[in-house]
Task: inverse folding
């Protein structure tokens, strides 16, 4: 079975603060893929990143960075110098090699205040 | 590219009525997914299709739910009869199963249908 846990239901920060969204996963597969999606107030989910289980190199894209730690089964997402436009619900997701579909966490609502 | 198009954007209906949600995937995508989002349960996969064929409908909650994909550019999710507990946001998503020889799970989501069953 696959499981994704996003323990933080809601986070509130003030603009320009750094914020980290936690994601812990469970899978029996030795090969798997991890994802982050963003759901802005408009509703549709937007793909942010996909990582393979055999690539633990951290990734940075502008103000976004992802920390993949296989030893702790975590795939955390950090936004540096947060902005109001970052306000959204963020979903972590997992697909094991034996599964054809994604398992999503319940999401973390991020509210960035000016 | 128009993206995944869902209609209607909002649907309010009375208990017992039939509800039909519609989805047009991105042209060329061979996978189509129906998800339901609620506060309590988060995002749940209901069913997905590959090349118009239903592959896994184990997430469909009850026989009241049915989904079809008559062609590559159209899918429907029907609830008959609807119940208040069906109230949720229903998302359709599509993806290209193979991208340059690699499985590509990058899902493109529609804007969702907000369903309220009174």
Result:
């Amino acid at each position: 079975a696959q499981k994704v846990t996003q323990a933080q239901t809601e986070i509130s920060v003030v603009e320009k603060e750094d914020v980290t969204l936690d994601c812990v996963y469970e899978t029996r597969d030795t090969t798997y893929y991890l994802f982050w999606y963003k759901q802005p107030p408009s509703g549709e989910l937007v793909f942010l990143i996909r990582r393979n289980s055999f690539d633990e190199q951290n990734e940075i894209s502008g103000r976004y960075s992802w920390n993949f730690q296989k030893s702790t089964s975590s795939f955390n997402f950090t936004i540096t110098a947060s902005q109001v436009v970052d306000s959204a619900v963020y979903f972590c997701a997992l697909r094991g090699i034996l599964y054809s579909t994604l398992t999503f966490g319940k999401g973390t609502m991020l509210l960035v205040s000016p | 590219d128009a993206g995944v198009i869902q209609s209607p954007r909002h649907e309010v209906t009375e208990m017992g009525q039939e509800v039909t949600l519609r989805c047009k995937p991105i042209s060329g995508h061979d996978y189509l997914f129906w998800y339901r989002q609620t506060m309590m349960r988060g995002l749940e996969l209901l069913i997905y299709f590959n090349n118009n064929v239903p592959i896994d409908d184990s997430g469909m909650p009850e026989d009241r739910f049915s989904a079809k994909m008559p062609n590559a550019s159209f899918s429907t999710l029907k609830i008959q009869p609807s119940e208040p507990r069906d109230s949720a946001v229903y998302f359709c998503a599509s993806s290209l199963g193979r991208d340059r020889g690699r499985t590509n799970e990058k899902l493109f989501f529609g804007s969702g249908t907000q369903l309220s069953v009174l």
